[in-house]
């Protein structure tokens, strides 16, 4: 290996490490929706989520928010609401709907303090406030540039795992993203969540601890 190639390798490595450190730091700066981990198996978890309040709008999964959906929600939290209130950005951004289709609902999670005090109504007709019902979910975590093809592939992996455990879930899945669209794919954190069905006599586990989304 020549000296020039060695120096190039060092520069590339430093750039990758720097980008990774920036991504982790930026992600840690946001409040993240809490959940309780009940079980972990590699990149798959069973989680319990509390009720969450979302500011939501229609979107397309392949657009990464470039269809204007992200900016509609961003304007809402920037003060385009009936209280002219600025609301802190949080993670993740939920994409609810069939992960195999492009038409979904993009939702920003409202910070806990805002949810307790009352979420202001939007001024824009394209944004709505709604409650995401809590419950138990099977979740798979992965990297890459999120689109409907990748989401469907990871959903299939998750459903195979659920089947092996005898777990029954809803027919639709949700996607969740924790990073800005410009984050390099290998450094991104994405998730697919499937709500689990529970029998009436099933008692939720108290194992695990409530925590914010891991970095």
Key descriptive features of the protein:
single chain, 215 residues, alpha+beta, 10-stranded antiparallel sheet, two-stranded parallel sheet, 12 strands, 27% helix
Protein described:
Helices cover 27% and strands 31% of the residues. It is α+β, with helices and mostly antiparallel strands and 215 residues long. The strands form two sheets. The chain has a ten-stranded antiparallel sheet, with helices on one face. It has a two-stranded parallel sheet with strand order 1-5. It starts with a helix and ends with a strand. Residues 4-26 and 203-208 have low confidence and may be disordered.
Task: Characterize this entry briefly.
This protein has 215 residues and is of the alpha+beta class. It contains 4 helices and 12 strands. It has helices spanning 3-28, 69-77, 112-117, 148-164, and strands spanning 31-32, 34-41, 44-49, 52-60, 90-91, 93-97, 103-109, 128-132, 135-142, 173-177, 190-195, 210-212.
Task: Report the end-to-end length measured between terminal Cα atoms.
Answer: 36 Å
Tell me how many strands there are: 12
Please state the structural category: alpha+beta
Q: What is the strand arrangement across the widest sheet? A: 8-4-7-6-10-11-9-3-2-12
Percentage of residues in DSSP E strands: 25-35%
Largest sheet: 10 strands, antiparallel
User: If helices are DSSP runs of H or I spanning 4 or more residues, what is the number of helices?
Assistant: 4
Summarize the helix and strand pattern as letters: HEEEEHEEEHEEHEEE
Mean pLDDT: 82
| Percentage of residues in helical conformation | 25-40%
Please state the overall shape, judged from the principal axes of the Cα atoms.
Answer: globular
**Radius of gyration, taken over Cα atoms and rounded to an integer in Å:** 19 Å
Low-confidence stretches: 4-26, 203-208
């Amino acid at each position: 290996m020549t000296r020039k190639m060695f120096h190039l390798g060092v520069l590339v490595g430093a750039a990758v490490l720097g980008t990774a450190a920036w991504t982790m730091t930026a992600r840690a700066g946001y409040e993240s929706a809490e959940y309780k981990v009940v079980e972990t198996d590699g990149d798959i978890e069973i989680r319990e989520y509390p009720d969450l309040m979302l500011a939501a709008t229609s979107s397309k999964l392949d657009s990464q928010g470039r269809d204007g959906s992200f900016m509609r929600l961003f304007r809402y939290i920037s003060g385009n609401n009936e209280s002219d209130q600025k609301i802190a950005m949080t993670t993740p951004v939920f994409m609810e709907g069939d992960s195999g289709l492009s038409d979904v609902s993009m939702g920003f999670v409202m910070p806990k303090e805002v949810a307790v005090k009352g979420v202001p109504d939007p001024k824009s007709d394209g944004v709505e406030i709604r409650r995401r019902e809590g419950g138990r979910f099977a979740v798979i975590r992965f990297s890459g540039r999120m689109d409907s093809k990748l989401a469907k592939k990871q959903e299939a992996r998750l459903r195979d795992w659920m089947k092996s455990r005898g777990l029954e879930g809803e027919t639709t899945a949700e996607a969740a993203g924790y990073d800005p669209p410009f984050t390099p794919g290998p450094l991104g954190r994405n998730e697919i969540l499937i709500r689990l069905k529970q029998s009436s006599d099933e008692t939720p586990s108290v194992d695990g601890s409530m925590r914010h989304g891991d970095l």
